[in-house]
């Protein structure tokens, strides 16, 4: 698996922050819509979004949910704070924080969402351990990510791998290794985005 450093993530998203919504907004939006629709049905009292980025999902979460968003990139968070500021009356808190070492107490959130983050974090297993720690027992974790395996992804992986290695994105990322290998309960897996290139995985924090 490609090595990704924290500094690599920070520098990559410093470059992307001004154009992220334009480059990745529309193409990944179907997955975000599926994610937030599921959260809307669940209506959790508290929710943590890991990798909140520019805040593209914030306005779609239930108005009654207390939302906390964390991101490693201050540049991305500046856009998210601007969006959150327009959502008057909502309980939204945004923090610059390393999701592999969060300073929240155990069992802090009813729901944790992780949109397009697992394959760009330096240590996915460490991130998973933190997700499980801060999510309440029996709580819900939503992973939204690409995973290797489909024929369409295999072709795309070969095309983007030289670029992915440079910008800190793992094009070769396996569901079995990064989801099934952990001791949590996978409840549903849904293909989302163009050609089903991403999956929305619903997990019960057993």
Give an account of the 3D structure.
The model is unreliable at 159-167 (pLDDT under 50). With 206 residues, the protein is an alpha/beta fold. Helix content is 39%, strand content 24%. It has six helices and seven strands; from the N terminus they run H-H-E-E-H-E-E-H-E-H-H-E-E. The two termini are 27 Å apart. It is globular. It has a seven-stranded mixed beta sheet. It has one domain (6-204): 3-Layer(aba) Sandwich (Rossmann fold), CATH 3.40.50.150.
Condensed summary:
It is built from 6 helices and 7 strands.
List keywords for this structure.
alpha/beta, 7 strands, 206 residues, seven-stranded mixed beta sheet, Rossmann fold
CATH class group: Alpha Beta
**What is the H level of CATH, i.e. the homologous superfamily?**
Vaccinia Virus protein VP39
Structural class: alpha/beta
**Assembly state of the chains shown:** single chain
Blueprint of the fold:
Elements: H1 6-16, H2 20-42, E1 46-50, E2 66-71, H3 74-85, E3 92-96, E4 109-115, H4 124-134, E5 135-146, H5 151-167, H6 175-180, E6 185-192, E7 198-204
Parallel strand pairs: 1-2, 1-4, 2-3, 4-5
Antiparallel strand pairs: 5-7, 6-7
